[in-house]
Amino acid sequence: MNQAVEISGVDTLAQELATIQQTGSKRIALLGSRHVPITHQHLIEMMSYALVLGGNRLMTSGATGTNSAAIRGAMRADPNLLTVILPQSLERQPRESQVQLQQVMHLVENSENDHLSLAEASALCNSEIISRCQQLVCFAFHDSKTLLRTCEEAEEQRKVVTIFYFD
What we know:
The chain is 49% helix and 17% strand. The protein has one domain: Rossmann fold, CATH 3.40.50.450. The protein is α/β, with parallel strands linked by helices. Strands 4-3-2-1-5-6 form a 6-stranded parallel sheet, sandwiched between helices. The protein has 6 helices and 6 strands, in the order αβαβαβαβαβαβ. It has helices at 2-21, 38-53, 66-77, 95-101, 118-132, 145-156; strands at residues 27-32, 57-60, 82-85, 106-108, 135-140, 160-165. The protein starts with a helix and ends with a strand. Helix 5 (118-132) packs parallel to helix 6. It comes from Coleofasciculus chthonoplastes PCC 7420. This is DNA recombination-mediator protein A.
C-alpha cells in the first residue's frame, strides 16, 4: 500500500514539473476575492498582463476585485487570449462589472444559474473554469471558503495550484 501512495506522489510531481516546464502556452485560471486593496489589484493586473503577453490563455470570472484586475491586464495584453466565465447571466453581475464585461470577446454566461444564490453559482462557475485550465492562480483569504474549495478541487484534478493569501 505504501508503494501505491509513493507512485501516486511521483506521478503528481512529474505532472506538476511537466506543466511548470512547458514552454508553450498554457491555460491559466486566475481567480480570487472581491475584497482586494487597490495596490494588490495593480499587482494582479500586472501578473495577468505578463501571463497573456507570454502567450498564455487566461480564464477568470467576472467579479470585482481580483477577477476585474485580471481582466484589465489581459485585455491590455491581448483580448483574444482572455475567456471570462460568469456564474450567472451578465444582467446579474454588479453594474460596475457589466461595463467591463461587455468589452470581453470570449464571455460565457451561465443564465441557467440565475435562480441560485451567488455562492452556489460561483462554486459551479469555478468548477467549470477549473475543468478548462491546466493551472490555477488564486488570491484568497484564509476564510474564503468557496475559493479554497476551488483550490482543493483543482488539486484533486492534478492541476498546478498557487495560492496567494491576503491575510
